[in-house]
Design goal:
By secondary structure, the chain is α+β, with helices and mostly antiparallel strands. The chain contains 9 helices and 24 strands. The protein has a domain of 168 residues: Alpha-Beta Complex (Nucleoside Triphosphate Pyrophosphohydrolase). Helices cover 19% and strands 35% of the residues. Strands 6, 7, 8, 9, 10, 11 and 12 form a 7-stranded mixed beta sheet that branches. Strands 18, 19, 20, 21, 22, 23 and 24 form a 7-stranded mixed beta sheet that branches.
């Protein structure tokens, strides 16, 4: 580890020690400021803001399970996820923040310069103002490098989008006050930190995906001649968005058949998928020092992976057109594999996700050079409790055919980076993999 990274970890542990955090599990009926609607059972905040937990009825043609009902988080407002970039001696650095979230497995993780819901930054909670917010919400304060509305977990959110924005300071000598919980990090440093389990949070990774390929130690993976053109990839995705649309409708939470709704939690009758639990939070470093909220708690750790194959000397990744319950536009470009293996344990082998066994076999005993990266990353700790996925990129050879059927296509990382700039085309799991492909050496 370099001296700079050793200094980073010393700083990060100092920030962890500087604040007191406490997250306590409580029954849903004991959440301060939250209550179940007497008619629907939906969990709602008394302000009518932040988010709610509702029921959803879903039909997705072609899935292993085509029809189901489930709870879902509805958060219709757009938040801001922003990273400020500044050059130091000609080297671009990102201003990141050591931030506590109630659902983080380790409390403190590395977040963007700004990570705030609209309810937070408009101060519905009557707390402190969000630092650096005006750098991203005021036109002309900096030079935009990327700005797009991006989706989040379609399996758990209903059509949620956040603004992902990267802004460079106009002048390299412009002074930006650095608060105690913030630190400038170079692209190389970020690449090494992305390879550390549960350190760089989901919001940072999705914003970093907009810089992948333009900088960073692994940018060379983004260059080469593609197997499919961009119009062909867009044609393929649009076909899946229109040919087999997901049919969904919001229903009362108490009508989610197959789920138990109790005073303590909402859970699946067979102990699968996830639960909705309640927590009381104390966090001295946040805009509000104490609050209560529901969290979605997954039942198991997921596996998210790209298969990587050279085609004509150019590295390509295998992506799929993936439809999920809450996806805003029916389907988005997703990873080769994206699942929680435990959720498929009750299904026959032919209904397991394609290529899952290939990924797991490579991860358990990889030949040298076959696994490009293998890291456990946390998902959004503001809404999910200890949600973690194992992210991998696995090299395969010519024994994996180019023709993977209508649901899959080979694409270069450069093509994914180009599509990503417009928002709403890559799902959040694919964006994490794209960031890792671009930054992890």
């Amino acid at each position: 580890m370099s001296t700079d990274l050793a200094e980073f970890h010393r700083w990060f542990e100092e920030r962890r020690a500087a604040h007191a955090y406490r997250v306590t599990r409580v029954p849903l009926t004991k959440l301060d400021g939250w209550s179940a609607d007497p008619e629907t059972g939906d969990l709602l905040h008394r302000s009518g803001r932040f988010f709610g937990v509702h029921g959803l009825d879903v039909r997705v043609p072609g899935r292993a399970v085509e029809e189901w009902r489930q709870p879902v988080i509805s958060q219709p407002e757009h938040g801001v996820l922003g990273i400020l970039v500044r050059d130091f001696d000609g080297v671009p650095h990102c201003l990141l923040q050591a931030k506590m979230e109630p659902g983080n497995v380790n409390a403190l993780q590395l977040s963007p310069t700004v990570q705030a819901t609209r309810s937070n930054y408009t101060r519905v909670h009557r707390g402190r103002a969000v630092p650096y917010l005006d750098l991203f919400t005021t036109l002309g304060r900096g030079r935009p490098l990327a700005d797009a509305l991006q989706s989040e977990q379609g399996a758990w959110f209903l059509a949620k989008r956040n603004r992902n924005i990267v802004v460079r300071t106009v002048r390299s000598d412009e002074e930006v006050p650095v608060l105690d919980d913030f630190r400038w990090l170079s692209m190389d440093e970020i690449g090494w930190l992305l390879a550390v389990d549960d350190l760089v949070n989901m919001d940072t990774r999705t914003v970093l995906s907009h810089l992948a390929g333009s900088a960073g130690p692994a940018a060379a993976r983004f260059h080469g001649r593609p197997f499919h053109s961009l119009p062909e990839l867009l044609n393929w995705l649009t076909h899946h968005r229109t040919a087999e649309p997901t049919v969904r409708r919001r229903i009362p939470l108490r009508e989610t058949t197959g789920w138990r709704v109790t005073d303590d939690e909402v859970s699946h009758e067979e102990g699968r998928y996830f639960r909705i639990i309640g927590v009381d939070v104390r966090a001295g470093s946040r805009e509000v020092a104490a609050w209560s909220q529901p969290l979605l708690a997954p039942r198991g750790q997921g596996v998210v992976a790209f298969l990587v194959r050279d085609i004509g000397g150019t590295p390509h990744v295998l992506v799929q057109a993936r439809a999920e319950a809450g996806t805003r536009d029916t389907a988005e470009i997703g990873p080769t594999v994206q699942c929680v293996p435990a959720n498929y344990a009750h299904l026959p082998g032919d209904r397991r996700p394609r290529h899952l066994d290939t990924v797991l076999a490579a991860a358990s005993a990889p030949p040298p050079g076959r696994v490009l990266f293998d890291v456990v990353q946390s998902e959004e700790g503001g809404r999910f409790h200890h949600a973690r996925n194992r992210y991998l990129a696995v090299r395969v050879g010519d024994d994996v055919p180019l023709d993977q059927g209508d649901a899959f296509r080979w694409a270069t990382c450069g093509q994914l980076a180009a599509l990503n700039q417009y928002g709403g085309l890559l799902n959040v799991e694919a964006r994490t993999l794209l960031a890792c492909m671009g930054f992890i050496p």
